[in-house]
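Q: I have 546 residues here and want to know how they pack in 3D. Can you give me a structure?
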Amino acid sequence: MAQEKAGSLAGKILKDAGVSYLFGIPGGHVYPLLEGCEEAGIPFISVRNEMNAAFAAEGWALTTGKLGACTGTAGPGVTNLLTGMANAKSGGFPVLYFGGRARLSEFDVNQLQDFETLPVVSSICKYAKAIYDPARLPEYVQRAATMATTGRPGPVYVEMARNYMDEEIDPATLPSLPTVLADGEGRTAADPAAVARAAALIDKAERPILLIGGGAWWSQAQDALTAFVEKTNIPFFTRNAARGIIPDDHDLYGGLAYNHPVLKNVSPLCDLVIIVGTRPGYTLHPSLIPAGVPVVRVDIDPAEISSMVQVTVPLVGDARAVVEQLTEACSVTERDAWLEAVDDVKTAVMQAAMPMLMSDAYPIHPMRLMFELFAVADEDTIFCIDGGDSATWASAILPATGPGQHLSLASTCYGPLGVGMGYAMAAKLAHPEKNVILLTGDGAIGYNIMEYDTCIRYGLNITTVVLNDKQWGMILRSEAKKSADIDPIGLILRETHYEEVVEALGGYGEFVDKAEDIADALERAMESGKPALVNVMTDPQYGPEF
């Protein structure tokens, strides 16, 4: 049988592992891998910064629920991936990073881009290995992919020195690989006795709430959760990667499982909290789980079950499997009075926000911009969200119209500005038939605006809306609270015409400074047939109050 370069074989192995695209920048130390991926039918998406490759790979995971993959050449190519790795660890995102390394003969003799990467990435990744025997490449890659996508998902890393990438091997001599688990196999169910106790609490409760987080998305539990809430009539709140796992227009949708006014007003009234696949923290304060109220918590990680929450019934297992158990064990229950009370809270919060949402003020109120974006959303809209204040406004207002259709900086507590373009590019690649809208701030767009060159090269017609308040608003406001006499240091930006940058790159741009012009500008941008950016000047005095 004909021999192949190990790098070429690597592409086939990634294909078998479920990789659809490889994001990165071409580099000499990984070039055989790129050739192998193209031969195997994995298109290489050449971005302008490896950090955006990492964010695109996690964006792919967030919008599809499947393994994302990216690569960085030896040394700086890999270290440019580190912010993405850290975010994937924080959020539990299944991403595989394939790193390059200098030739073995070049180790430790000051050769180009030689850097001992493994000790750095090992502190971040679930699994990190250097491959020194090309014959074991399939074994290591499959192991990495399995580690990334099972248990609590997370980042994994493999690297191979260039001399091994070039080594010729006979695929027929490679050892056979262990059987890969089919979907549904290996999903751990919870202890049946614990499920029975949880079901008894759920049946008894008059005012339960359900908080759904990213673990449910990685388990692909959308059908199971829909069946559960429709049988039990429990209002649900979603967050992180689970936004849209049941669409926001569902009758039982309560709101956001964040520090949001609806949940803040509903949670003190509840008599049971059910938590599926999420952790309290910066965006979900533990105080929103009322003291003394029984808690049923579902998590695949036993160590997380009691973290930050007093749990009455712990259910350790895969979210989909456990929710299916609960659905079978629980009774059909009507909770009309409770659902009406939750709706009353939602109505009151919306009424309080209406003057801001409908404001015609000049400069534009940020909430008016959110209203105009909300108005264009339908079941074929994917929102990607980036920035500080802009992400807070958008996460609170913009709808999640389906699973994998609301990709946000707020999906982790790590909070790296700059995720937006990577997320948007991945979403458009995964769902070319859908409208992908990126809402970002004028600070965050500076991290990645050159990826419009990538969008144009690959025909990714996304629409970006920049909330431009000419400042690093979140930090400016937080520091001003400490001292009214603050003299801003580095916090003031300019009325920069980001739309002109996009036009110079070959895209479509619009500048908007009046509220009545937003809707028409959005329509023109979305119908332009090009990657587009609408630069909207907003009032810098307003920041989110939640």
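Q: Anything worth noting?
A: Residues 336-357 form the longest helix (22 residues). The chain has a mean pLDDT of 94.
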